[in-house]
Amino acid sequence: MPAQSPAGRVALWRGRSGRVSAFADRCPHRGMRLSHGFVRGETLSCIYHGWGYAQAGNCVRIPAHPALTPPETVRVATQHVEDGGGIIWISAGEPTGGPPRFEGLAPVRSMTVEAGIVALEEATGTSIAGGLLDYTNADTSVRLLLAPESPARTLMHVLIDEDSNPDERITASRAAEALRRAAEHIERGGTGR
Amino acid sequence: MTRNAMMDEWYPVGLVSQLDAHGRSTALMGEPIEVKRGDDGTATVARSDGRHLPVCIRYGHVWSSLGDPQKPLFAIPEADQPGRRLVDVGVVRVRCSPLRAVENFLDIAHFPFVHTDILGSEPHTEVQNYKVEIREDEDEVWATQVRFYQPQAAKSAEGGITTEYMYRVPAPTCSILYKTCPPRPGEWDVITLFVQPLAEDLCDVWPWMALFDDETPMTDLIHFQQTIFVQDRSILENQIPGLLPLDPGMEIPTRADLTSVAYRRWLKRHGYTYGAQLVAQ
């Protein structure tokens, strides 16, 4: 799937073993987006000509020339990925430590909001603290992990208490949708709540 | 700034069969144009300021140019051969460089992945060696002895066959494909790709065919080609950069890409750079 990082667009994929990798979203052969590709085993293949790349980013297969061992120079840039507490983290450079942990919280869903962080803060009436934004709607409280994709677009990961039951998760999901609508209204020039 | 060499080329701007007095508003290299049937029944192409542009009627299409074409439109002798069915496939709008659209047409290695179970299928992915040349007399790019295994090479093909191809690039945004003709061994089916450059990153693709096939309904022939080109569109609208890189370094070709390498070299040599990127980023 496509994802955004400070280093540009990435193709995020999970091999059969469960390991997650992040590649620059461009096949070096003909420039096709690798996020359109397909995964077989531990290889991501480009949808255009089927060139296959291992998790380290090196090309392992060029179907037009099955007998050819691809040169080491054919490779895609990779980014460091960690799977922590149900959240996938990408590091643009060399990470100095592991990703943040949010004890006691579990992820519900992620959604794209066509609004910046300022509009989201205005919609919640609170500010980011400890890396998370709190939002309460009626009796439901969710905590939001925000990844800016552009000044007016944010990828919002919705977290709730890990002991929540399925009904509470559905309610939290709907609360997050309400927040998205409110933030997008503010971003378009509307007033806060 | 030097004059763009592509200005003086002929480009398709509409189907003759759809020409009417009402006209079709379209564009050529960023210039709005109007294509219609004039009072005397002939096709006219005019810019928005009313100035008339050169017109040529050939291969089912109306052709025009923003500049002053120095030579007639390229010849396709097979178009006049008796017994062929001439197929106006229609138009596919693609958000890509017109040059990228042609390059994709010249490529066979993508068949198993983009046109799966139609023009190619795994594990038959190998591209055998073929010949590529820039023919100096005709000033055209040619690829010959191209062979590829195809599950369903044409609407008239039953089951898989190894198909032989020849490719020809007679103009910067036009290519002609000659392909094994299942019902008529010894003859070639002709499939063309005529690309109208609307902008550097936007084009209308007008495929056209001259086939030996008296059996298949016209609708099926058109659907078959449109299916193929719509599959290609999903690729063409997702290549980075959008413009075709003419300098080496940005992309990595292999032996299977020799036609593309020759096409890029030929474009660069002539200064055919509308839709191209010259400096690697």
Task: Report a brief summary of the structure.
The complex is a heterodimer of chains A (193) and B (281). Chain A is of the alpha+beta class and 193 residues long.
Mean pLDDT of chain B: 93
- Which residues of chain B form runs of ≥5 with pLDDT under 50? none
User: Structural class per helix/strand content of chain A?
Assistant: alpha+beta
Report the uncertain regions of chain A.
Answer: none
CATH topology term of the largest domain in chain A: Rieske Iron-sulfur Protein
Total of domains of chain A: 2
**Oligomeric state, counting identical vs distinct chains:** heterodimer
CATH superfamily of the largest domain in chain A: Rieske [2Fe-2S] iron-sulphur domain
Polypeptide structure, described:
The complex is a heterodimer of chains A (193) and B (281). With 193 residues, chain A is of the alpha+beta class. Chain A folds into two domains: 2-91, 3-layer Sandwich (Rieske Iron-sulfur Protein), CATH 2.102.10; 105-187, 2-Layer Sandwich (Alpha-Beta Plaits), CATH 3.30.70. Chain A contains two helices and 13 strands. Chain A has helices spanning 117-124, 166-187, and strands spanning 2-5, 8-14, 20-24, 38-40, 43-45, 52-53, 59-61, 78-84, 87-91, 105-113, 133-137, 140-150, 153-161. In chain A, the strands form three sheets. In chain A, strands 1-2-3-8-9 form a five-stranded antiparallel beta sheet, with no helix packed on it. In chain A, a hairpin with a 2-residue loop joins strand 1 and strand 2 (8-14). With 281 residues, chain B is of the alpha+beta class. Chain B has two domains: 1-73, Single Sheet (N-terminal domain of TfIIb); 83-277, Naphthalene 1,2-dioxygenase Alpha Subunit, Chain A, domain 1. Chain B has four helices and 16 strands. Chain B has helices at residues 98-105, 111-114, 218-236, 258-270; strands at 11-15, 24-28, 31-37, 43-47, 55-58, 61-64, 85-88, 92-94, 131-135, 140-150, 161-171, 174-180, 188-199, 202-211, 244-245, 276-277. In chain B, strands 7, 8, 9, 10, 11, 12, 13 and 14 form an eight-stranded antiparallel beta sheet that branches. In chain B, strand 13 and strand 14 form a beta hairpin. The mean pLDDT of chain B is 93. Classes of the chains: A alpha+beta (193), B alpha+beta (281). The A-B interface holds A 25-26, 28-33, 36, 46-50, 62-66, 68, 74 and B 107, 109-110, 112-114, 122, 125-127, 234-235, 238-241, 245, 250-256.
